[in-house]
């Protein structure tokens, strides 16, 4: 699947189409959008077709093609467009303006398909030819090496850009149990945004810590149990920020521009060029869907990707072993310093590999915390047939298991090591 035969493109302001996509009237509303963008498609003798992709669990994704007579499949794909419509309520979780900025920023570095237009509840962008990976593909050496190289390129070349905020003088309105002075009258209170932006003091916002803070504020609190859970998660986030936000790492301020959602459905294996001079050239991949992309420690982005080796089913037996993680990180480090234009003579490769390997190991529990909070919100807003509530418990249990492993409480209690921790500790 994917968006353009070429990546990157226009630098002009992205067009806005004042229409919406409606799941109930999918073909009608999608056709209206595509003909607004490409009016010539209506009368050029082609047949417009819609192909639905279902790799995600929050958005609708349609590939739209114009099958004109005499064109090859590749030529048709080169003109194909992807329509992505956001799931209901997801703007509670995702900053859509920021997502557009991310897409345009990546286009400038030839790392994203051309963004053609936005509409009220989604966007239209070029199709990337290639094959979507599955979790099983992550076990294939050529694929994971390509992912490591591309992820390192993201982290090395794309700058972290802070969001400009208005100066705020308003008193913060929030929840007393979260250390804020008064009940929150509105999720959009500007002072509440200031509290989110300051979740990790000294770090430019947004970043992965401010994202988690925003999500904790968005959790449902209609019952005493929900309020207690929110307070508990807030306590843990404060602890995580204290322990992790100022650790040394790659990038400026120890932050890199991270994808933060590098699951199999967001990795496209690109086709080899026809008549390529190097038939045995390495595989190349592209990443799609940048709605969660934000400045983050590189170790978080890599640990999060490793967690996705198990897929939505969280099959921990598929997670990379120590030797697999080390090989991935070695490939990543080589690519990172190459793209950083810093010669390996200036950096001891094995020292860098060991340092990042240990850092990813330390971060291994945090993706479970991140996606656990996310799933608790999705369980209340999503209309998609997916058991978010159970998924939330599975992911949060990864975090608690990591905590118990780190503080020794699991061993002290005499309980067996959980499968995920056991797999993570496995050598090969």
TrEMBL record:
It is an enzyme of class 2 (transferase). Keywords: Kinase, Transferase. One of its GO terms (biological process) is phosphatidylethanolamine biosynthetic process. It comes from the Eukaryota. GO terms for molecular function: ethanolamine kinase activity. GO terms for cellular component: cytoplasm. Its EC number is 2.7.1.82. Pathway: Phospholipid metabolism; phosphatidylethanolamine biosynthesis; phosphatidylethanolamine from ethanolamine: step 1/3. Belongs to the choline/ethanolamine kinase family. This is ethanolamine kinase. It comes from Venustampulla echinocandica.
